[in-house]
Amino acid sequence: MTKTTPKLxxxxxxxxxxxxxxxxxxxxxxxxxxxxxxxxxxxxxxxLPLQLRPGYHVQSNTPTDKYLIPxxxxxxxxxxxxxxxxxxxxxxxxxxxxxxxxxxxxGNFELTTKFRVPEAAIAGPxxxxxxxxxxxxNDAMCLPxxxxxxKLPVDIVR
Length: 158
Hints:
Layout: H1 6-21, E1 27-29, E2 36-39, E3 43-52, E4 57-59, E5 72-75, E6 81-86, E7 91-93, E8 102-106, E9 108-116, E10 124-134, E11 136-137, E12 146-157
Parallel strand pairs: 2-12
Antiparallel strand pairs: 1-3, 3-9, 4-8, 4-11, 5-10, 6-9, 7-8, 10-12
């Protein structure tokens, strides 16, 4: 039988408290994105459906204050070349913490990316991965910025 030292017990309690203090993710990909059909040499558009927990918003890609973190979707090099991301039109909302209305997204919304399929792409199933950086807030406070991994399945055809 092993003994738990007081230092180990204190460390376990501290780590448990730290884990409990971490705010849960308030932004997530809505469902599983369908596989994107992409023909070699063509351009295609992919929609990334996102959903926010009720009571929260994220700063748009064009926040009104310099200190706020904009929503940014970036794609890693992979089987497709990202040509650009289109963000929805933000809502201008007034919150107690700022004198100016804030440029935000709330509820469910989509980001659309236009991709080019290189001539040298290999036909078959694949995936493109990226990062979504955001700052979520509610009426009273903003959570620390987060970056989440995103992945879109791709079926490259000739």
